[in-house]
Amino acid sequence: MKKKLLAALAVVPLAALLAGCSGAAADETVKIGVVGASDPYWAVYEEAAADAGITVDIVDFAEFGQPNPALSAGELDLNQFQHIVYLAEYNVASKDDLTPVGATAIYPLALYSTQYDDVSEIKKGDTVAVPNDASNLARALLVLQSAKLITLSDGGSIYSTLDDIDTQKSKVTVTALEASLTATSLPDVAAAIINNDFVEKAGLKVEDALAQDDPTDPNALPYVNVFAARAEDKDNPTYQKLVEIYQTTKAVQDGVLDVSAGSAVMVQTPVADLESSLATVEKDTKALK
């Protein structure tokens, strides 16, 4: 999946490219919502976009639950913070049709602790914190099951919930918190599953993870992070150009890898594959409602 490349955009004058935009006009700023605008690579990205004649404004959000409603409401032109499973959950819950317009990276989801150096040291009855949004919660539970800390009665899937934990067969108790709080909960719990966005900010190092999933697994497609747009803007050439800039600007890619301490797997998954994965996850999600 990593090796797939997006088809090269046709070489046309930038003025003509921008003239065909269905969203932001050529002389308007493209607002992109992110969680973690202070990451240095976003400034590099803005400069690279400016060199291509596109003005970008990176809009920061503190929580994962904020950028999608802002995009739907027209406060943003794009956002870039979520994987396909999260986007599908949002679309189904909100009856929306936000759509992926480009891939960025897959980030491993990992377990951290300030009390233990090895997952085997975690004691029976200890409490482990996980993100409480449905998509990351399920993924976190799969990590805990792989680490032999819990047993999921349904065997585990991208739809697993706390109710699926077989407490009699599990070693730890699991508590769900807002994603940005799992890192700050470490003094109070044995360990926590922490989203990549918050690892460095919490003073942690990726290499200190006690356990994590495998972002290179072909089955990880639903966890590819994406640029998302409103459905009517999915073919906007300016937005496609911005995806290309992100994917092909070495300084931006290096910056992403630096912030993730090398854990990110950069991808250029074709948009058609992203759309197909989104449709599948949305269908399955609706069937479970």
Alpha-carbon distance between the termini?
A: 30 Å
Compute the average pLDDT.
89
- In spatial order, strands of the major sheet run 2-1-3-11-4
Q: Poorly predicted ranges (pLDDT <50, ≥5 residues)?
A: 1-22
Beta-strand segment tally = 12
Order of helices and strands: HEHEHEHEEEEHEEHEEHHEH
> So how many helices?
9
**Largest pleated sheet:** 5 strands, mixed
Strand content: 15-25%
| Percentage of residues assigned to helices | 25-40%
Specify the overall morphology. globular
Cα Rg: 19 Å
The secondary-structure class comes to alpha/beta
What report would you give on this structure?
- This is Methionine ABC transporter substrate-binding protein.
- Residues 1-24 form the signal peptide.
- Belongs to the NlpA lipoprotein family.
- It is found in: Membrane.
- This protein is 31% helix and 17% strand.
- The chain has nine helices and twelve strands.
- The protein has a five-stranded mixed β-sheet.
- Helix 2 (41-51) links the parallel strand 1 and strand 2.
- The radius of gyration is 19 Å and the shape is globular.
